[in-house]
Amino acid sequence: MKYTARIDIPSESFCLEDTTVSIEKEGITFGNRSIDYSVFSLLRPINHAVFITLMDGTEVKVSMLGFSFDGFWEEIIQCFGDRTEAALFIEEEKLMDCEGEYDIPGNSILPRSAGRGRIRLYTDAVCILPQDSHAVRIPLCYAESITLEGYLIQITMRTGEVYTVGRMGYDTQPFHERCVKQMEKTKKQRAAHIAELRPEGLFTEKGLFRTAEETSYWLAAYSEKCCAVELFTGESAATYLYKFEDRQLFQFRLEEAMEAVGSHREVIYLPEEEIKEKPLYVMAVHRSEAVRFLRSCSDGRIIHTASHGEKLREYLGV
Questions:
Q1: Per residue in 54-63, pLDDT tens?
Q2: Which residues pair with 59 in a beta bridge?
Q3: pLDDT band at 106 (very low <50, low <70, confident <90, very high)
Q4: What is the dihedral sign for C-alpha 165, 112, 208, 204?
Q5: Is the dihedral of CA 304, 308, 309, 311 positive or negative?
Q6: Sheet containing strand 59-63, strands side by side
Q7: Which of 13, 18, 126, 172 is at a distance of 20 to 30 A from 295, taking alpha carbons?
Q8: C-alpha to C-alpha distance for 120 and 98, rounded to whole angstroms
Q9: Average pLDDT of the chain, as a whole number
């Protein structure tokens, strides 16, 4: 949608009066400029103005919106959240969409984050969408427990990490009940599908991507310090290679990363300069711990040609 507003960028001595600001699926535009959501760091509403802090520290102030302020704020938060979902490769059905409090533990890139934002429940995950770039998708298949204490829901993962959401008003208890139901359903479905998979040849480990995609799966083959992963998605064209130091830790994280990233392989092997040309991948690298993990230990690919088997055995040293 389009709005009439004033745009100020103090660090650039930039100002546009009564200009048209358009909120689009991939970012905002005004004048002859556009800003992709991939470079958004923080959104704040202050005194009927919206302050957009970018990754490089630049601050963009959108003001003089008049009676359109509420609509502008709601739409930019919605579009920013939807684009973030795409960067987290969320494709499953949305069951609930609430506003509430959240507490996200820190990771290798981002510190702990807490505040209010959108909390969404999908068939296989909970997604927290803050007003900053610290969004997270929480896979229910790897949750150990989901408990409700007062007005807060604690999601404890098998790694020991604890995510807290809640204070959603009348939605809090229904959210908790449906969350538990989806966790149990997802785990049951996933276990049944994985039990039917049969590793073959050099491949000894198995796993699913997303739970609903029962015909898409992966197999892994290991040597002392490296791993080869074969994807079965109907479009398998390469075997993906990874290196590691601690096999047990790597295997644990590989399972979670495969579930998070799914068959979206390009974001793993593209070099940094090409990632920068794809805004959605820039968001994925920044927001997804799974993407960063797989990129950090990626060791190339073996394309499916007549010499594929020979190259695979050579890589694994068998």
A1: 999 999 999 9
A2: 53
A3: confident
A4: negative
A5: negative
A6: 33-36, 27-30, 14-23, 2-9, 59-63, 49-54, 40-46
A7: 126
A8: 6
A9: 93
